[in-house]
Amino acid sequence: MRFGLVLTNGNISQIFICSFLLADLAKSVSIVRTMRLVTIGPRLLTLLSLAALVPFLPLMLFQYPLAELAQKLIKHLVGP
After folding, report:
1. CA nearest to 4, candidates 20, 27, 28
2. Cα dihedral 24/28/34/38 (nearest 10)
3. Domain parsing of the chain, residue ranges
4. Can you give the pTM of this predicted structure?
5. Band of residue 12 on the pLDDT scale cut at 50, 70, 90
6. Residue, of 55 and 5, whose pLDDT is higher
7. Predicted local confidence at residue 51, as pLDDT
8. E-assigned strand segments in the chain
9. Which of 18, 24, 20 is CA-nearest to residue 3?
10. Which DSSP symbol is given to 21?
11. Pairs from 43-48 (Cβ < 8 Å, separation ≥ 24)
12. Is the sign of the CA dihedral 39, 41, 43, 47 positive or negative?
């Protein structure tokens, strides 16, 4: 029985909900509290950006020689 009615003097005085329904509600509230506002995380964002940039690598190699790209990368990582 999920819902029950308590009769007092022939009138419905109170509607009570069984404790397992309150446990279900508490579980639902805890799930909602653990949800994130933005569903994309940093790992997924990195993977998506890499997947978008990988097809452009052959085109970049036609424009810039590999040695020049490596030199710019090292210069950028080390600093001026």
Report:
1. 20
2. 160
3. 3-35+53-78
4. 0.40
5. very low
6. 55
7. 94
8. 3-8, 11-17
9. 18
10. H
11. none
12. positive
